[in-house]
Amino acid sequence: MPQLKIISYNLNGIRSAVSKGLADWIKETQYDVYLFQEIKANELDVPKEIFNDLGYVYHTWFSAEKKGYSGTGIISKLPFDAIRKGMGIDKHDREGRVISVDIGDLTIVNAYFPSGSSGGERQSVKMEFLDDFFVWINELKATKKHLIVSGDYNICHQAIDIHDPKGNKDSSGFLPEERAWMTKFFEAGFIDSFRHLNTDPHHYSWWSYRAGARGNNKGWRIDYNAVSAGLESNLVDAKIHPDVKHSDHCPIYLEILF
Prior knowledge:
With about 260 residues, the chain is α+β, with helices and mostly antiparallel strands. It has one domain (about 5-255): Deoxyribonuclease I, Chain A, CATH 3.60.10.10. It contains seven helices and 14 strands. Strands 3-4-2-1-14-13 form a six-stranded mixed β-sheet. Helix 5 links the parallel strand 7 and strand 8. The longest helix is centred in the middle third of the chain and has 24 residues, at about 120-145.
């Protein structure tokens, strides 16, 4: 049975990440599929020729209507059997937050959950997204048995996933209602692949640009490669790559039999 190697990576701007050496890193690693969030680019402005030259001739992009904001994309060595852009919910789809593909009998969902850190209005948008996404992903799971749900969830699930749980107990991304949603999501039949295989603390995927947070590893684990429960025995490896620096996030890795 072949192994599929997947990266999920919030780039905080695809053109910025390319200027910081993203293409060289992809050339070096040569994983099968890369899932990008927060591309912050119209599809016409995505440097697709770079990925084509690296052998990733299969790609799909879902840009936000708002210029320089949000957006998702997938590049792959393997062809897509199906592509779905959005959840069929206009208020979320205008922000280019969810794109999914089928590769064989695997369905890979690439999602960029809203952040609520800018204030109450965006926190309300985030909570609405969580409710809508939960319904949508479970409807998809009813027809697609082998699901990978990757991306930037913008939520730390447990105290082990954040450097200062007490100090951040009232912060968006670690609010009780957000953490409860994550618990509900996993109890609905999904597995946090990294935490399933790694129980050690101090593993994070995002760091503030302020106060030397990354150098001091004062981070948050808000990026996930979740898999549907039926894929548990297919899990090979899950890692976080904090030393890869093209963004305020770092790439997260999943290796799975398919």
